[in-house]
Design goal:
Number of domains: 1
Radius of gyration: 18 Å
Helix content: 25-40%
Strand order of the largest sheet: 3-2-1-9-10
CATH class: Alpha Beta
Largest sheet: 5 strands, mixed
CATH superfamily: Metallo-dependent phosphatases
Shape: globular
Strand content: 15-25%
Number of strands: 10
Distance between the termini: 50 Å
CATH architecture: 4-Layer Sandwich
Oligomer: single chain
Structural class: alpha/beta
Length: 272
């Protein structure tokens, strides 16, 4: 029997990653599977990579890491909305930048006789939104990427379902889980020779502690508006980053866009 932990969408949040790892410490975990977006939106990108390097991990890229690798060093493709991404890019150590350059976008591994297909959105596109109703994609995957278990991320929402005797699942998100307030989510997959069992974990956190973690960081000093968006997501479990992006006016500053956004959604002051 082997136990495998699935930790997705860490998004630079060392506080919540450490909380999940502390929970898993006595669970006899033999392998950690990370399905991308472990960087950006938090202050501790290098520390997170350094921790993951010490664990028995299988890691793939998410859309955020892909975006970082596509940033032009001369800033020619940047606007103000992308500055938080550039912050991650410019602060990564040379070793850690090389580390992510060598990661795949999709990987099929084998544990205890089970083939496990890891992707962020899907193997076809890192931004695909896969959920329990994505049966057409499930059917296509069984032909294009034969496996017993398929892992997804990106949506920050969890699900698990069986289709054609295969297991399809998303463990949610370490940082900014969507659908419930103040929980970090991940999963434990127990693999026996003839049985695969999945356990979904919801771990509550104290919002004020997570808020304090962000406010003490240089990340907040440089990006107060974007940090507020992240904190709204952490406090309310609502996908405010997508709402903010959809309403963003590139002719205006980040600050002006933030105040317009806060007014539209009648959001209370968290910190400014």
């Amino acid at each position: 029997m082997e136990k495998v932990a699935i930790l997705n969408d860490i998004h630079g949040n060392l506080y919540l990653l450490n909380k999940a790892l502390a929970y898993l410490r006595d669970k006899n975990i033999s392998k950690y599977l990370i399905c991308g977006d472990f960087l950006t939106d938090g202050p501790d990108d290098n520390k997170i990579i350094d921790i993951l390097k010490t664990l028995p991990c299988e890691i793939i890229l998410g859309n955020r890491e892909e975006s970082i690798l596509n940033i032009s060093p001369d800033l020619s493709n940047l606007n103000e909305k992308m500055y938080p991404l550039y912050y991650t890019y410019k602060n990564l150590t040379k070793e850690n930048l090389e580390f992510i350059k060598n990661l795949p976008t999709t990987k099929i591994i084998e544990i205890k006789g089970y083939k496990i297909c890891m992707s962020h959105g899907s193997p076809y596109k890192s931004r695909d939104l896969i959920n329990v109703k994505s049966t057409d994609t499930f059917k296509k995957l069984t032909t294009d990427y034969p496996a017993d278990i398929y892992l997804f991320a990106h949506t920050h929402e969890y699900f698990s379902t069986e289709y054609q005797n295969k297991l399809f699942l998303n463990s949610g998100a370490i940082n900014c889980f969507i659908g419930k307030k103040c929980v970090t989510t991940f999963g434990i997959l127990t693999l026996n020779n003839d049985l695969a069992l999945y356990e979904q974990i919801e771990l509550p956190y104290n919002f004020d502690e997570v808020k304090g973690y962000y406010l003490k960081s240089k990340y907040y000093e440089e990006f107060p508006e974007w940090t507020n968006i992240v904190l709204y997501m952490l406090k309310y479990g609502v996908n405010y980053n997508v709402k903010f992006s959809k309403s963003y006016d590139y002719s205006k500053s980040m600050k002006n866009n933030f105040y317009k956004f806060k007014f539209i959604y009648n959001l209370p002051k968290i910190v400014e």
